[in-house]
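User: Hi! I'm a student and our assignment asks us to look at how structure tokens line up with a sequence. Could you show me two examples?

Assistant: Happy to help. In each example below, the sequence comes first and the structure tokens follow. Example one:
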Amino acid sequence: MWHFRLFVTFLVLIVLTSLASSERAYGKSPFSVKRDSDGIWFYEDEDPICFYQVIHKATANGTHRRANYIHPLLDLDGNIITEDFPEDHLHHRGIFWAWHQVRVNGENIGDNWECKEFNWQVVDPLVTRRTKSVDLLVNVTWSSSLLLDDDKNPAPIIHEQTRIRLHTTRSMYRVLDFEIQLQAIQPNVSIGGSEDDKGYGGFSPRLRMPVDPVFTGPSGNVEPQRTAVAAGQWIDIVGQFGPDDQTSGVTIITHPDNPGYPEPWILRKSGSMQNAMFPGRHAVPLGKGDEGFTLRYRLVTHRGSTNTALLNRLARQFAK
């Protein structure tokens, strides 16, 4: 137990040191960051955009412990549009990427989706500010108390390197890009979604949903179903996200190079997340090094109703 406490203390010190020191700037940038003991706030011209959770966070009684996600995310009018620890699904958390199945030698090692017996150790968060964007680059070690090393500490299972890029806000929209690289550390690692017929798992925004949201894809209206639906490269969710009667939306765009593209969509009008599903109910092998996965997603917050021409253009630019 003493060794475990020393190990945890050492890792926390690494994270706190990283929070205090890792930042670069190239040219004059409208972006700024503020770091606290939990994570990193991102601002553009002093307006808050989002917060990245570095340190593990849990409910008041210590359950559903998690890190490595975005919450809150604010829209162009300053409304918080994500939820964390919602009562209907306490494990849902802002903008997150997770899987029920994380297997080693065929055995499930904790639950990365439901935050059971799982750890995300964020090391070396690096912020790079440029004239038209700001990047957050993080290295994350996944581990579980169900798989211990020779010293009885949680053994590393997967190495994640994620880059989140915030672009300068335009008059009608803002773009955030996510690039998530996953590489196995242990031999014979595989990941998969829920094992039922829904198969959900992967990139998942938990939004503070408006009443009567409208879902639109490249080909038009999309109606959420209990199981996954085919909707194309992107899905736009429109409604009244703020306290007034202004219409706005959130778009999730997938990248053509993603494994499984075009991903099916798990969509919900209320009380749940929206999910670009990968890989589905059947776990797939995750290799080491270059044999791992790279998953890319673009998130757009915008004013007004769905602008198909704009979203198609942003999708084409993202695909380059």
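Example two works the same way, sequence first and then tokens:
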Amino acid sequence: MAKASEADLKMALELASALEAISCWYGGTMPATIAKPQQDEDDWEPFTLEDPEHCRRVCEYLIRLARSASLFRVVMGMVVLLDPENRFIDPDVDILAYHPDTVAALEAIADPMQGR
């Protein structure tokens, strides 16, 4: 599995941010990168599905963004990392932590007399 590049990760974060913006429960906003300036600098340009111009701008932006790097490498890298059969990550906790087998192996390397 190819490792995600810095550009891939940056694009994935920007895409996640854009999707969060347009789908916010409290009223979607245009992604910051394509938002038109508002009179009050603290205001965000609203996004509505009923506005064809909004939808066109967002679709064009998302397509351009997706073509700029590989979201697939980011997602598949995480799928491989989290696959329990690979024993990289502890499947029994809700955070990214080393698999117990990895921890034991590292401890054995650090202290070769541990298992005797």
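Here is something you could point out in your write-up. DSSP finds four helices and no strands in the chain.
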